[in-house]
Structures are given as structure tokens and as C-alpha cells.
Write a structure and sequence with these properties.
It is built from 29 helices and 12 strands. By secondary structure, the protein is of the alpha+beta class.
């Protein structure tokens, strides 16, 4: 490879053109939204109004770019109990609180410990809400009691996080905290300190300060073994502020942050500590490095003659100085050093010393090389034969072109994964949605894509209908039903609403109305998706309408719709799927239920990972409905023979892994054979 400057420019071009933005939708965002709902579902043991308020944090919330290589290592969700609040020491207790807080709220004062950034929580007040005006009255405790951090911790601990089961391919960390609505005095200088280059701007500063902070239940590493301090010390958390600040970065800054994290991870610089309990380099040090750089560097440093390799080199050199001097100043908290004497960073610093000599080469081999592996074979083969800058430019151009052209297809795949994650909430995570979790998930989905709110609303209507038909009504289902009615306004639900308020509930009528309204919403959802993805997938919009007609015994209407759908899907290279969860197969007959159960027995992966769920293509479903209706309507042998030919062609076209599709087509093939014989 010839000129280093040319290589750096090629790397910069590659990074800028392969990182998609803005990242409107990703599987990680959807999974994080679902996990927020599961946290909101968690029983608190108090009453219906007491619960946990979740917030997606970490990489999922911070990044808006979508690079070719993964930038999300796990799903992080912080959550606070709505009966507990923290306030800075000496501040008066609040008289008004956000709506999510309980009628009774314990208030703790934040008291500094001997270590900057670490505090104690002392219970000082009990707030009770007045029914008349909604304001809170205060009762002061005579003697404050330090709140222990042990009640907020469980096994599988990872820092302040509760390391929970894996979500798909990613681990899930739930981080309990205590909410503080005020900006803390421990970071009092941050909003007002002098900034030469105007970042963050005044609007961003105001936004950060107005969001306050949190306190998480973890003692300083040096204090965790102390019998008293280890049980009562907490850490100030500025995750809310970091999300706002990092989302205000320009793309070059987000890309730099991603690349630095990837470099530190792949070079195993976070694994250089020994077994002595000494601290190690972490993503938080890289985040701190970036936050300081965004504030201390002029904007043109990030934009003029942009060279991302040069930027990364300079930042890593700054990090080397920090590691050598054992100095990493906390971005928010005064006099807080994130690299204390327990850190042994000489080995890491020595590895970073010659960084300017090899970073371009590292980019090509370790970053771009990994990106080439996820491309089609012809591109990865081209990359294996790169020996000069001209060849490198050609390969980069091919990767960029492929990345751009595959954008919509990737988004379509993400849509399906989102449908699976939403539908899998109840059966996979073994939770029964309550009103808080329903509202939480609707709010989280609205932030990502409003179309998923329509899908989830329809799914939840079918879920309630399924539960009612099997177990009749209970208080939880009635509560959710009331919330659902508040989300929609049509004739069906007006009738249902009247029935609810009169408490004259006919189970079969309610189930039918819920199913009808759900089908209408699913049709709307299909129409919205077909508008955006019609160029990469053939999406028929009446598959659920056909299912509902079949359920009601309107076989003529079902046959009409299914026949139209078969014709529309016949030459489709890509199409939508229908998940065979109980919520959907309640619209079908026992044959599909049995085949779904058989598929689960034959293919264990379907039971273990939501990414391998049992689903059926729109074409197979339409052929199934068409055949069943023809049989029920006693169509001629000639008509059935034509259908049989369609079934045989569909069997040839199906991918090998489509277990349920193959079983379904085999079933209706045999049914038609019996009639022909």
C-alpha cells in the first residue's frame, strides 16, 4: 500500500458512506422497547399504582448511526421505583411530581461520601398526594436512615446492573436506580463552565439540566469489601445527560466514538488488568474521552479536511497520556478521577504509544476486512487481493454501492424481526402484560415507528380475545381492554365500550368484536408496509382479512381473497410471513394448530430462540385457505386439480428450512388427493 494519506482518505470515505443515518429502526431498538415493557410488568408487591419506570440507556439509546459492524454489545435498561425519589441535600422536598410517581413517595437526601461521585442516600421525608389539587404534603422523619444498596441488587451482578438472561443474541442488563429530578450540586459547575467552542449549545445544556440525574446502587471498587460503606454507598449516574449529548453529535463524532470502542475491544485493551482487582480500561473511559474532545476541540477540527484516521490517532494519543499519568477527569463531576491508583495501565499505554504508525493498516485489516466478510462473496474475494490503493478504492466503491442498494432489504428484514419481538413478548418472556407495560411499550414503539403501534395494538386485541375465550374475564384483562378502547375509535369498539360500562359482557360477542377490530388494524399495518417495501417484497394486505372470513365461516369471501392473494404472490421473490402464535392461529382451525405443534417438536430451535419462530408465508397460507374453502364449498375435481398443481409448484419454490410451510402444503396436497381419488 502506498501513500498513508491516501489510505486515510479511503478509510474516511468508507466510514462516512457505510454508516447509515439516521437509524430509524433497528432490531436492537425494538428489543430494548420490549425489555422496557417487561421491566414495567414486574410485580412490586405493593399495589396497582406502584411500579417500575424504565428507560433505555447505553449504546441503543446513544447511537443514531448504523455502521456495518455491531455497535451494540448488550441491551441496557435503567429503571426506578415510583415510590422512591432522591433530592440534593438541603433542597426542600417537592410539592409536585411527574404523573408516573405514586401517591406515597419516600424522599432520600443525597449526601456526599469521601469519594467524589459516590454518595449516600438518607431517607428524610414521606410525601403524600392530596386528592383535591394533586400536590404533595410532606412528613419529615426525625432521623434519616441510610438506604442500603443491597436491596437493589441481585445475583449475576455486572457493576450496578443485574445481568439478566440473553435477549436473542444479546445479553440484557437491567440497572436499578433512584430518580433525582434536579441537577445535582456534585456537577454544579458543569452547566456554567466556560466553553470556547460553544458545545454543548444553550438549548442542549438546558435539556440536560432539566432531566436531572439518577443514583445507582454500587459502591466504589475500593470500598465494596467494607462492612458498612460497601452496603450503603451509591454512585451518581449521568446516563440521561450522556444520551442527550451523544445524540447531539455530528455523524463524524458518532462514527469516531464507534470506531474507538471497536478498536479498544478488538485489541483486547479492556482485558489488560491482572487478577489483583485493579481497574481496567472500559467503554466509559472512551465515552469520557469523546465528551471532553467534543467540548475542547473546535468544530472545524471535526469537519474541515475530514480525516477520521487522524482524529482517532490524536484521541488515542490523548488517552495514552491519561493512562500514563493515571488521570481521566470525569466529564460532569468535579474532582473525580476515573483512573485512580488501583488502575494498572502501563501495559495499555505502551500498546497505544506507536498508534500513529499502524492505525491505517489496522483499519484495513481489522475493520474493513470484517465488513467485507458480511458482503457478497465476490466483494470479499476482491478484498482478499488488495495490494495497492487503486484496488482498495475499487473494493471500497463496491462495498459502498452494495451497502446502499441493500438498505431497503435490510430494513424489511428488520421489520419482520420487530414483528417477532413484539409478538414474542408474552410467550417468550413468560409475562402477562398489564396496563403499565402496555402503555410503556406503546410509548417506546411510537418513538421508533408509529406503524408498530398499530401492529402491537392489533396483536394485543387478539391476545385479550384469546385469553377471554379460554379463561373468561379478569381484572387485568378488563384494565387492558379499557386502555385499548382509549387507543382506538370505531364502531366496533363503541359497541364494546357500551357493553363494558354497562357490565353486560357477552364473552363471544366481545371476542368477535376484538378479532374484527384487530384484523382491521392488521390490514392497515400491511398497507403501510406495502407502500414502503413494495419494491423489495410482495406484500398482500388482505391475508388477515381472509383469515377472519375463514374463522366466521364466510368461505366464499375467504376463497375470493385467498385466490387473489395467490395470484399476487405467485412470482414473488420475497414476501411477508404470518406468525403462528396462539393470538393468530385462533383465527384458524385445528389442522394448523397441530402442524405448529409438530414443527415445534421437529425443530427445537423454534422453542429456544425467537429468531427461529414458527411462521408461515403469505403464499402458503393463501394456498391453505383457498384449498380448505374449495373443499368446504365442494368445488369440482377440475378446480381442485388446478389447485394441486399450484401446491406442487409452491413446494419446489420453498426454501428448505421452511418446516411449517412444507408440512402445510403436504397436508392440503393429501386432502386434495383424497378427493380426486
Amino acid at each position: 500500500m502506498s501513500d498513508e494519506c491516501d489510505v486515510s482518505k479511503i478509510v474516511t470515505t468508507f466510514l462516512l458512506n457505510t454508516c447509515r443515518l439516521p437509524r430509524r429502526l433497528s432490531q436492537h431498538n425494538i428489543v430494548a422497547a420490549v425489555r422496557c415493557a417487561t421491566v414495567a410488568t414486574k410485580e412490586t408487591g405493593d399495589d396497582n399504582e406502584s411500579g417500575f419506570i424504565p428507560l433505555t440507556t447505553g449504546s441503543v439509546a446513544e447511537f443514531y448511526i448504523e455502521p456495518m459492524l455491531p455497535l451494540v454489545g448488550d441491551i441496557d435498561v435503567m429503571y426506578y421505583h415510583n415510590i422512591l425519589l432522591a433530592i440534593p441535600r438541603g433542597h426542600p422536598p417537592p410539592t409536585q411530581l411527574p404523573a408516573e410517581f405514586h401517591n406515597y413517595v419516600k424522599v432520600s437526601e443525597i449526601i456526599d461520601s469521601h469519594l467524589p461521585g459516590y454518595v449516600y442516600l438518607s431517607i428524610r421525608y414521606l410525601l403524600t398526594q392530596c386528592v383535591d389539587d394533586g400536590k404533595y404534603n410532606c412528613i419529615q422523619y426525625d432521623k434519616g436512615m441510610h438506604l442500603t444498596n443491597r436491596n437493589h441488587r441481585e445475583t449475576n451482578r455486572h457493576g450496578p446492573a443485574l445481568h439478566c438472561e440473553r435477549t436473542g443474541a444479546l445479553p440484557f442488563d437491567a440497572v436499578p436506580c433512584v430518580r433525582c429530578l434536579s441537577w445535582p450540586p456534585q456537577a454544579a459547575d458543569w452547566p456554567t463552565r466556560h466553553r470556547n467552542y460553544g458545545w454543548p449549545d444553550s438549548a442542549t445544556l438546558d435539556h440536560v439540566v432539566s432531566n436531572g440525574c439518577d443514583v445507582v446502587p454500587v459502591a466504589h471498587r475500593q470500598c465494596r469489601q467494607h462492612k458498612v460503606i460497601g452496603k450503603h454507598q451509591w454512585r451518581m449516574s449521568f446516563s440521561r445527560a450522556e444520551i442527550i449529548l451523544i445524540n447531539s453529535w455530528i455523524p463524524a463524532q458518532q462514527i469516531t466514538y464507534h470506531v474507538l470502542r471497536y478498536f479498544i475491544k478488538t485489541e483486547r485493551l479492556t482485558d489488560c488488568g491482572d487478577n489483583s482487582g485493579a481497574g481496567t480500561l472500559s467503554n466509559y473511559h472512551i465515552k469520557t474521552l469523546m465528551l471532553w474532545a467534543c467540548e475542547l476541540k473546535p468544530k472545524n477540527w471535526w469537519t474541515e479536511n475530514l480525516n477520521l484516521v487522524r482524529i482517532c490517532v490524536e484521541l488515542l494519543q490523548t488517552l495514552t497520556v491519561w493512562l500514563t499519568d493515571t488521570r481521566c477527569p470525569h466529564y460532569f463531576t468535579n474532582n473525580c478521577n476515573l483512573l485512580d491508583s488501583s488502575f494498572n495501565m502501563k501495559n495499555v499505554a505502551s500498546k497505544l504509544m506507536p498508534i500513529d504508525e499502524y492505525l491505517s493498516t489496522w483499519f484495513i485489516k481489522n475493520y474493513m476486512g470484517q465488513c467485507a466478510q458480511v458482503c457478497p462473496v465476490y466483494i470479499s474475494r476482491l478484498f482478499n487481493d488488495v495490494s495497492c490503493t487503486i484496488q482498495l478504492e475499487n473494493v471500497v466503491s463496491e462495498i459502498i454501492r452494495w451497502r446502499l442498494n441493500s438498505s431497503l432489504c435490510d430494513m424489511w428484514l428488520t421489520v419482520f424481526c420487530a414483528e417477532v419481538a413484539i409478538a414474542a413478548l408474552v410467550p417468550i418472556y413468560s409475562v402477562s402484560l398489564n396496563v403499565p407495560s402496555y402503555v410503556c411499550l406503546m410509548n417506546e414503539l411510537a418513538k421508533i415507528d408509529h406503524r408498530f403501534c398499530i401492529y402491537f395494538l392489533a396483536f394485543e386485541m387478539l391476545h385479550v380475545a384469546h385469553k377471554i375465550s379460554r379463561n373468561s374475564f379478569n381484572h387485568n384483562l378488563l384494565d387492558i381492554l379499557q386502555v385499548i378502547l382509549g387507543s382506538i375509535a370505531n364502531q366496533c369498539c363503541s359497541v364494546l365500550s357500551v357493553g363494558l360500562f354497562k357490565t353486560e359482557l357477552n364473552t363471544s360477542e366481545v371476542v368477535e368484536l376484538l378479532q374484527k377490530s384487530a384484523v382491521e388494524h392488521l390490514k392497515t399495518y400491511r398497507q403501510l408496509m406495502a407502500r414502503e417495501f413494495g419494491s423489495v417484497a410482495t406484500i398482500v394486505t388482505t391475508d388477515f382479512e381472509a383469515l377472519y372470513a375463514y374463522k366466521r365461516g364466510d368461505y366464499q369471501r375467504c376463497l375470493q381473497l385467498s385466490t387473489q392473494n395467490v395470484h399476487a404472490l405467485w412470482y414473488a421473490r420475497c414476501m411477508a410471513d404470518v406468525l403462528t402464535y396462539p393470538e393468530f392461529i385462533q383465527l384458524l382451525d385445528d389442522d394448523i394448530v397441530s402442524l405448529t405443534a409438530l414443527t415445534l417438536i421437529v425443530d427445537p430451535e423454534c422453542r429456544e430462540d425467537y429468531r427461529h419462530n414458527v411462521c408461515i408465508t403469505q403464499l402458503t397460507l393463501s394456498l391453505y385457505l383457498m384449498t380448505q374453502c374449495q373443499l368446504k364449498l365442494h368445488h369440482s375435481v377440475t378446480s381442485l386439480a388446478q389447485t394441486l398443481n399450484c401446491i406442487k409448484v409452491a413446494q419446489i419454490r420453498l426454501p428448505r428450512e421452511s418446516s411449517l410451510d412444507r408440512l402445510t402444503l403436504k397436508l392440503i396436497e393429501r386432502k386434495v388427493y383424497v378427493i380426486n381419488l
